[in-house]
Amino acid sequence: MIIAVDGPAASGKGTIARALARHYRLPHLDTGLLYRAVAATVIDLELDPEQEADAVAACAFDEQLLGDERLKDDAIGKAASIVSAHPLVRSALLQRQRRFAQQPDGAVLDGRDIGTVIAPDADAKLFVKATPTIRAQRRHAELRARGSAVSLDKVLADIRARDERDSSRSMAPLRMADDAALLDTSFLSIDAAVQRAIALVEARTAGRSA
Ligand SMILES: Nc1ncnc2c1ncn2[C@@H]1O[C@H](COP(=O)(O)OP(=O)(O)OP(=O)(O)O)[C@@H](O)[C@H]1O
Ligand SMILES: Nc1ccn([C@@H]2O[C@H](COP(=O)(O)O)[C@@H](O)[C@H]2O)c(=O)n1
């Protein structure tokens, strides 16, 4: 079974995707980490994330980076959103994500274009959303817990800018697939959101063989 989980920054899609992977005993890929690894490599090599050729060169990143806590930094998230808008960067990362999705038992992938581009035939697709203010509050709490002194206003402004960039790029913009189920987590606890996600997957896959 392939489960696609998409949505904007800090909507809770990663939390839900990890819980679904545990529940269905499937491998999980956070595809945002790939773009974050490209962004971190661009920064480390003192290249320019706005330049497509620079970003493409960074697609051959060191695999060990994927486990680096530094990838969670907001500055890396912002640079990831810049490099991910380059069509050649998306093409360079495409097959890796499709191969992950096509494992024998299936997989759970979360990102921005899983249901629309990476796995358009996924068995279940969720589009996770929450209001910008609630997403900013969640991300702010997370960053503060990691020692950052960033203000809530700055986090909210960054989230709005990232939404705009991710939704308006020419290739694979952030959008809900026509056949995705919408899950608004704004007023749901993590547990309630996960239970709702499982119910939506069950409803989508009822009657199908595994
Ligand atoms: N329903 C919820 N209620 C409260 N907090 C939540 C909820 N879902 C997720 N969170 C918290 O919000 C933060 C962002 O969640 P998460 O990392 O899952 O979002 P994301 O959409 O995957 O973000 P990103 O796009 O940046 O990877 C985390 O600190 C997480 O614990
Ligand atoms: N499938 C995806 C996943 C991510 N991106 C871009 O990467 C940025 C960081 O992603 P996070 O999920 O870790 O926040 C994000 O803002 C997107 O620009 C993408 O384009 N496609």
UniProtKB/TrEMBL annotation:
Keyword Ribonucleoprotein in record: no
The cross-references to Pfam families, in alphabetical order and at most eight, read: Cytidylate_kin (PF02224)
Q: Where does ATP bind?
A: G7, P8, A9, A10, S11, G12, K13, G14, T15
Q: Which reaction does it catalyse?
A: dCMP + ATP = dCDP + ADP; CMP + ATP = CDP + ADP
* Domain Cytidylate kinase: from-to ranges: 3-202
Question: What is any one of the record's Gene Ontology cellular component terms?
Answer: cytoplasm
Gene Ontology BP, a term:
pyrimidine nucleotide metabolic process
The enzyme's main class, written as a single word, is transferase
Q: Where in the cell is it found?
A: Cytoplasm
Keyword line: ATP-binding, Cytoplasm, Kinase, Nucleotide-binding, Transferase
Protein name, as recorded: Cytidylate kinase
Its ancestry begins with: Bacteria, Pseudomonadati, Pseudomonadota, Alphaproteobacteria, Sphingomonadales
The primary gene name is: cmk
